[in-house]
Write a structure and sequence with these properties.
The chain has one helix and ten strands; from the N terminus they run H-E-E-E-E-E-E-E-E-E-E. By secondary structure, the protein is α+β, with helices and mostly antiparallel strands.
């Protein structure tokens, strides 16, 4: 049985109208994209940036993580640049860390080409374990926290 030519076009138009309506509803209700408003149910964060040095020199690329102590909240982490600099993110890009005390872990990651930093860096394993790290910092509300971390072989 053959359908009239206009039949397919009408169904296509109906489908497009429904899809566009659903998309607009999601967009206007905040279901798509990112919202700039912070969720009031999440713990308050404060911006954190700084530098990590190992034996006086900037640490090669790696990861730094702040683990909240005594407060509820997600850990904050950031990538360490070639210059040893970092900015932390918890719930959004560079939003910092949860306000309060934190244990800090630091790891050096292999380079993308599989090579090792020159000179090679082998941090003591305690720096990579939140239960063993000697590094502790406090994140304070209402300001950008400037953190300097100096790592040594003597823990």
């Amino acid at each position: 049985m053959r359908r009239p030519d206009g039949y397919r076009n009408k169904n296509w138009l109906r489908l497009c109208k429904k899809a566009c309506t659903a998309f607009l509803f999601l967009l206007l209700s905040g279901g798509l994209g990112c919202s700039s408003a912070a969720n009031p149910n999440l713990p308050k964060t404060a911006k954190v940036e700084g530098v990590v040095r190992y034996q006086g020199s900037p640490l090669p690329p790696g990861t730094i993580t702040f683990h909240p102590q005594g407060v509820t909240g997600n850990p904050a982490s950031g990538q360490i640049s070639d210059e040893g600099r970092f900015q932390l993110s918890t719930y959004g890009r560079h939003d910092g860390a949860v306000v309060g005390n934190h244990k800090v872990t630091v790891t050096v990651t292999p380079l993308m080409d599989g090579s090792t930093p020159d000179p090679p860096v082998a941090l003591p394993k305690q720096y990579a374990n939140a239960d063993q790290t000697p590094l502790e910092v406090e994140v304070v509300s209402g300001k950008t926290n400037q953190i300097e971390i100096d790592l040594t072989d003597k823990i």
